[in-house]
């Protein structure tokens, strides 16, 4: 069984959904530490001015918190602003209506208990629109962490019975210790994500990669998942344990 693990992001880019699509089981690392300045609470969309960064503000507490404890700042009208910006950016997109349910879910008059809850709602709804049916589980609902970094990933994989770990491309050179997987008898396979090519809105701004998956869906609609799969390079062979 191939297992992938990733922190939930706000309005995630297609690479995360591609990873979800490739896995047999996906673990949301929702008890990871919240890091300011990362992608846990922000992402890009494309507007007539080019890239626009949308950030869901998180309350400053003076201490590092888990995503499951990070609270969103509702003293700021960010929900209304994000919705208006998205609707204006994709007003002429051929499949903008497919994003309506997501916008209604995220930006209705409600508050999300934590950043983890908001981000999981984003990814769940995007996966539904793309028709990705990979089962998922939250790491916070498994055994409490006894390790960190790669050892934590191995710990989670062993708990769910993984035989292969699907690793994101960025971890190849940054932090993943493949030796720990080998010692646990778990093969490592690299995602090898490649951004799909598709017609975008606001062509004067050129083609932009790694925008929110909203951009892909608004422009390609039901053809979004096939486009991800066509663009996907043949995955590297799994590294035998």
Written overview of the protein:
By secondary structure, this protein is α/β, with parallel strands linked by helices. It has one domain. Helices cover 34% and strands 13% of the residues. It has helices at residues 14-22, 78-89, 100-107, 115-130, 149-160, 171-174, 178-183, 213-220, 224-231, and strands spanning 2-6, 25-28, 42-47, 50-55, 136-138, 164-167, 187-190. The strands form 2 sheets. The chain has a 5-stranded parallel β-sheet, sandwiched between helices. It has a two-stranded antiparallel ribbon with strand order 3-4. Strand 3 (42-47) and strand 4 (50-55) form a beta hairpin. Helix 3 packs antiparallel against helix 4. The longest helix is centred in the middle third of the chain and has 16 residues, at 115-130. The radius of gyration is 18 Å and the shape is globular. 37% of the residues are buried. Keywords: Plasmid. InterPro entries: WbqC. This is WbqC-like protein.
